[in-house]
Design a protein that fits this description.
Mean pLDDT: 77
Largest sheet: 4 strands, mixed
CATH superfamily: Endonuclease/exonuclease/phosphatase
Protein name: DNase I-like protein
Organism: Dioscorea alata (Purple yam)
Helix content: 25-40%
Strand content: 15-25%
Low-confidence stretches: 1-5
Structural class: alpha+beta
Distance between the termini: 44 Å
CATH class: Alpha Beta
CATH architecture: 4-Layer Sandwich
Radius of gyration: 15 Å
Strand order of the largest sheet: 1-2-7-4
Amino acid sequence: MAILEALSLLGIGCNSSRIQDQSSIWFELTGIASLNLPWILIGDFNAIASLNEFQGGSRNYYRSKARVFSDFIFLNNVLDVNYISSRFTWCNNQVGAARKWACLDRCLLNPRCMISVHVIVIRSVIILQ
């Protein structure tokens, strides 16, 4: 139980769509990730980890951002907790061919946290206007 007492919960809201800004954030978070503490990182990352996490829009727009974000996940050996509902967590609320869907919100756990937390369930709800 001592490990749970030191659990860190970090929230993130990455509202920049610029890859340079996001790369800086992932670099800073890698520094935090190197601490030998259990942590959960949860929030809106405004990035996908792979090309199957979006529908609609340009592959070129998502490709480089997905590579940078998936590198962050891989280099820090974090687990991306899956949702029990829709695989998409964001929609631009457009209609027809202009509609875009993506998985931008997620919950990441580091290895120290995975030892302590046995069950995590994340449910995503998208509200369309």
